[in-house]
Amino acid sequence: DIVMTQSPDSLAVSLGERATINCKSSQSVLYNSNRKNYLAWYQQKAGQPPKLLIHWASTRESEVPDRFSGSGSGTDFTLTINSLQPEDVAVYYCQQYYKTPRTFGQGTRVEI
Amino acid sequence: EVQLVESGGGLVQPGRSLRLSCTGSGFTFGDYAITWVRQAPGKGLEWVCFIGSKTYGETTDCAASVGGRFIISRDDSKSIAYLQMTSLKSEDTAVYYCTRGRGVVEPAAGYWGQGTLVTVPS
Fold first, then answer.
1. Which whole number is the average pLDDT over A88-99?
2. Sign of the dihedral defined by the CA atoms of residues A57, A62, A64, A67, in that order
3. Do residues B8 and B95 make contact, with C-beta atoms less than 8 angstroms apart?
4. Is B115 on the interface with A (CB under 8 A)?
């Protein structure tokens, strides 16, 4: 199984500042034939199901604010939240969908 | 509007069985793979089982943690996917979410149901 490891487990960021979450996979999730990274980021607010923010490692969902961005390739990925807003308080998960089981990272809690 | 609605959760004794259902609407259910993801109380997300569409042979796969005890299936005529859970253990206690990819060939889970809670006392 591909192990996904996120860092840090939690972080506190001031309003308007930047939050950076890292995700490392135990093997590459870059599919060479199409040069796509099979990596997604999800946001889960308290009491709600997760919401897809970013897929293919860096493609933002249409309704997601552009302060959210994803980067990285191969085994190392980053979710950046620029200018943190109160509504961004949540737990964030990365997931690889390169192969089954499509494992998740352990989650990173973002607080103000 | 795409909707996924889970049902069938509840309190079940250890060793017993339970069947969860995931009913889809607002899309052609048979065109999409369905995945179950669970979340134990206060814990992270765990991928559970997957079933492909008929186009891809309805391939199934489940996590090792539930392998042999959980079976996923689908009835496209009813737009329902099932998760048959047997020999339940206390560690199976979780909210179970049904998910669908954002596209037919886009595996990232773009749609989630609200979840159904399964409680197995220790």
1. 97
2. positive
3. no
4. yes
